[in-house]
Amino acid sequence: MKIPNEYKELTWQGLWKNNPGLVQLLGLCPLLAVTSTVVNALGLGLATMFVLICSNATVSAIQQWVPKEIRIPIFVLIIAAFVTCVQLLMNAFTYGLYESLGIFLPLIVTNCAIIGRAEAYASKNPVKQASFDGFMMGLGFLFVLLTLGAIREVLGQGTLFDGAQLLLGDWAAGMRIEVMQLDNQFLLAILPPGAFIAMGFLIAAKNKIDAKLAEHQPKEPESQIERVRVNFDS
């Protein structure tokens, strides 16, 4: 099965080249505040991905009826509607995680990554491509959240998947892994300043990998530009 180049490019853009967390640096407030554990990161990442997909699809479907002058307020209303759906669902089925995420769950409405994709891509492209773009951007954001959550949880508490039952039910309590024994919690990793430092290392690692990849790319020969000399002596 041959995958169209457009979808390959959307995948590359969402997961790596234009990742909302590592490159665009959008939606950093919840990313830095909530990723103290992997479970919190997974919950917020899935909620953000759901809103991204649904809002992109809706914005694309109604693009021809939205007046250009009031498009941003309409996009915000659409995003707010889907965030409310996520809140109600999490309140009903994962109440512990709903309380743990707190104010950062409704603040998804103000996530610049979501409204940015609605404006930059969904409002100009068909529903299918817009939905796929929302999925890939959400997946890229989720990967960054999970990586940051894993680093902070291991350094701060010495565990992984602590509190998994808040998201997946009582059966998931056995998923908790004790990576290393800590006598006391490492507060710097748990608090937002630790998230800033870990985020800086992630961005530096991505830049390093990009530089290595660029070194292996074939370099195009520089074109010689012939200069024209104008002589007024004759």
UniProtKB/TrEMBL annotation:
**UniProt xrefs under Pfam families:** Rnf-Nqr
Ranges annotated as spanning the membrane: 25-53, 74-95, 101-118, 130-151, 186-205
Enzyme class, one word?
translocase
Q: Where in the cell is it found?
A: Cell inner membrane; Endomembrane system
Q: Which domain of life is it from?
A: Bacteria
List the membrane topology term(s): Multi-pass membrane protein
The cross-references to InterPro entries, in alphabetical order and at most eight, read:
NqrDE/RnfAE (IPR003667), RnfE (IPR010968)
Which coarse location class applies to the principal site listed for this UniProt protein?
A: membrane
Q: Which UniProt keywords apply?
A: Cell inner membrane, Cell membrane, Electron transport, Membrane, Translocase, Transmembrane, Transmembrane helix, Transport
Signal sequence residues: none
The EC designation for this entry is: 7.-.-.-
- Please tell me whether the keyword Transport is annotated for this protein: yes
Q: Which family does it belong to?
A: Belongs to the NqrDE/RnfAE family.
Q: Which PANTHER family match?
A: ELECTRON TRANSPORT COMPLEX PROTEIN RNFE, ION-TRANSLOCATING OXIDOREDUCTASE COMPLEX SUBUNIT E
Its biological function? Part of a membrane-bound complex that couples electron transfer with translocation of ions across the membrane.
> Which NCBIfam families does this chain map to?
PRK12405.1 (NF009070), rnfE (TIGR01948)
Its subunit composition reads: The complex is composed of six subunits: RnfA, RnfB, RnfC, RnfD, RnfE and RnfG.
Please report the name of this protein according to its UniProt entry: Ion-translocating oxidoreductase complex subunit E
**Which organism's genome codes for this protein?**
Thalassotalea insulae
